[in-house]
């Protein structure tokens, strides 16, 4: 494969994101099960629904661009998820595990914030305003999720310290 | 590579675990960032990468010192994510047909790595704060700010560079 334009680059990165989001929908149910805090469980549940909507947005974008979301594995997301599950295995259920889950989830969010920021800039560059708007919606959801996790972390980290 | 890990029983060991990952990440970034510099034709971008590589080399000993104070186990723990992100970058760089497109790819890859660090440093700083390790928190906070500034700088360079990549098509 060769990449010789911003448009091709946009499509490549969108395929990558499609794979990333799909991997996330498969992982979130495990996080929901592993979390002890009801607030954290609920945050993951909400984000699972959001992620499903984000995949629909990506499908819509592929349709607008007349491209197919063919199979491609996002290696970065695979690494993030493996790293997160290792930490999950090393902790017992409770506040410390919850703190580890939030940490891993925020790294996933930051990956997405960076990737969606990049594709939005590409879409702007090639004047695909409809695509820009769709990507912007997702980007805002990811930022809000990251912020929500920061808030939950504040409570859980203190509880995790007391647990020691 | 160590496959069987010690159990993480408290916030203190979770903190140590994060420091070990950060140490590995910084060491890898110091080694690999010159590769990003070599793959850009933009002199401003190249200079930035050279600075980032230097800064990573300065940050590693800071993390190592925090780790040595916090734990007897101060070995870096292979950061598979940063490793994967560089791998991904190399692949895309090889696929790029023009210098202009390659410059854009290199920035996107670097920003993904920066965001990994931002999340990691943000969390680790918060752990240090809760644990009452105020001096650690201050040092980690300072590095977080440096990373944030680098990410912003890359966004600014991207804004300047992206239009030329469009024209290259």
Query: In the CATH scheme, what's the topology name of chain A?
Result: Ferritin
Low-confidence stretches of chain A: none
CATH-assigned fold name of chain B = Ferritin
Please indicate the count of domains of chain B. 1
The coarse overall form of chain A would be elongated
The overall number of domains of chain A is 1
Number of strands of chain A: 0
> Which structural class should the secondary elements of chain B be placed in?
mainly alpha
Provide the β-strand percentage band of chain A: under 5%
Spans of chain B of 5+ residues with little confidence (pLDDT < 50)? none
Structural class of chain A: mainly alpha
Distance between the termini of chain A: 52 Å
The CATH class of chain B: Mainly Alpha
Number of helices of chain B: 5
* Biggest interface between chains: A-B, 51 and 52 residues
Approximate helicity band of chain A: over 70%
CATH C-level of chain A: Mainly Alpha
Please give the number of β-strands of chain B: 0
Judging by the overall fold, what is the CATH architecture of chain A? Up-down Bundle
Q: In what range is the share of β-strand residues of chain B?
A: under 5%
CATH-defined superfamily of chain A: Ferritin, core subunit, four-helix bundle
Structure characterization notes:
The complex is a heterodimer of chains A (164) and B (169). Chain A is an all-alpha fold and 164 residues long. Chain A has a single domain (6-163), classed as Ferritin (Up-down Bundle), CATH 1.20.1260.10. Chain A is 85% helix and 0% strand. Chain A has five helices and no strands. Chain A has helices at residues 6-34, 38-65, 75-90, 95-125, 129-163. In chain A, helix 4 (95-125) packs antiparallel against helix 5. With 169 residues, chain B is mainly α. At the A-B interface, helix 1, helix 3, helix 4 and helix 5 of A face helix 1, helix 3, helix 4 and helix 5 of B.
